[in-house]
Automatic annotation (TrEMBL):
This is Acetyl-CoA C-acetyltransferase. Belongs to the thiolase-like superfamily. Thiolase family. The keyword Acyltransferase applies. The keyword Transport does not apply. It holds the Pfam family Thiolase_C. One of its GO terms (molecular function) is acetyl-CoA C-acetyltransferase activity. Keywords: Acyltransferase, Transferase. It comes from Geopseudomonas aromaticivorans.
Length: 383
């Protein structure tokens, strides 16, 4: 089978809710990273085969196939198409998978992939699913098939995060310590300039706005999100934010044609499902499945990026996979850096690639929990 290569990866800074990027139109937020991606690489813009973007809640400023509209808003050629993917939180990771599959199949040679989300402009209203927008009803209400299979069991991220914490014996205090470390790592990475190469400033925002100087005492003082979720607070949950990210995926033929230097080879891609009521546990079995398919173990993996939707999700995954916490989200995760739904997958991969390059690691693994009890896994080999 043909190989797929990552040639470039970049992202906007993460703008906090109602922060420095909150006024930027979603299309322009997506256009920003696409324009930078094309400008940084010697491929004529009209020779791109496709643009594949992740986005959750394709309504309002995010409607109208934002992959296509962002490309056009970047003043790039009319002949290049675009398509938008929604696999909930894993949308832009799935966009990367679709691009890799297109290249591996030989049907495309040059694909821009990524994602965008403006959570200030289109906020989520509940914990049922990623991107359940304000003003919309329970998506399961009235479905006879869903009720017949799952009854009235809650499809709720807070419920799932608490259930995971209880099942894996993770206390609120342990989750708060985990969250504090996420902020510490992110602040250290910013101070050390570790994100400089991967970040393309926008609208006067040069650095991620979301990491906080906080303390365990402050975290302990917060109220839980509900009486039925006593361990789940804002402190141990990912932050809503505004951001975009993009990567360039090409074939071996494109490498030769344009004189490109590959930065990573896509070694493995897969996606698995799990119980939608548990909702957030799929990364555990999806990682095991991916390692088996790839003929690898966690000992082969030099760095992991797993989305910190909630602290309990990552802590349960780490317990099951027995992986070194120091090599997991080494520069902080979504608790500190935010979770811009449709853009998070591309943001994680961008950071993973740069971290492998910084440390000299060979293999990196990315995974994340997704609405409906799903998880994508991507393994890349740094070249």
């Amino acid at each position: 089978m043909a190989e797929a290569y990552i040639v470039d990866a970049l992202r906007s800074p993460t703008g906090k809710r109602k922060g420095g990027l909150s006024h930027v139109h979603a299309i322009d937020l997506g256009a920003h990273v696409l324009k930078a991606l094309v400008a940084r690489n010697p491929i004529p813009a009209h020779e791109y085969d496709d643009v594949i973007f992740g986005c959750v809640d394709t309504i309002g400023s995010q409607a109208g196939d934002i992959a296509r509209t962002s490309w056009l808003a970047a003043d790039l050629p009319l002949n290049v198409p675009g398509t938008t993917v929604d696999r909930q939180c894993g949308s832009s990771q799935q966009a990367l998978h679709f691009a890799a599959q297109a290249v591996m199949s030989g049907t495309q040679d040059v694909v821009a992939v990524g994602g965008v989300q403006t959570m200030t402009q289109i906020p989520i209203s509940s914990a049922m699913l990623a991107g359940q927008p304000l003003g919309f009803a329970d998506p399961f209400s009235g479905s006879k098939g869903w009720q017949a299979r799952f009854g009235d069991q809650p499809v709720n991220q807070f419920y799932a995060a608490q259930r995971i914490a209880d099942h894996w014996g993770v206390s609120r205090a342990q989750m708060e310590a985990f969250a504090l470390e996420s902020h510490r790592r992110a602040l250290a990475a910013i101070a050390g300039g570790l994100f400089t190469r991967e970040t393309v400033p926008l609208e006067g925002v040069w650095y991620d706005e979301t990491p906080r100087e906080t303390t365990l005492e402050k975290m302990a003082s917060l109220e839980s999100v509900g009486a039925e979720y006593p361990s789940i607070t804002a402190a141990v949950s990912s932050q809503t934010c505004d951001a975009s990210a993009a990567l360039l995926v090409v074939s071996e033929a494109a490498l030769k044609r344009y004189g490109l230097t590959p930065r990573a080879r896509i070694h493995h891609i897969s996606v698995r499902g799990d119980d939608p009521i548990w909702h957030l546990t799929a990364p555990i079995e999806a990682t095991r499945h991916a390692l088996k398919k790839a003929g690898m173990t966690m000992a082969d993996i030099d760095r992991v990026e797993i989305n910190e939707a909630f602290a309990s999700v990552v802590m349960a995954w780490a317990k099951e996979l027995d992986y070194d916490p120091a090599r997991t989200n080494a520069n902080g995760g979504a608790i500190a850096l935010g979770h811009p739904l449709g853009a998070t997958g591309a943001r994680l991969m961008t950071t993973l690639l740069h971290e492998l390059e910084r440390t000299g690691g060979r293999y990196g693994l990315q995974t994340m929990c997704e609405g409906g009890g799903q998880a994508n896994v991507t393994i890349i080999e740094r070249l």
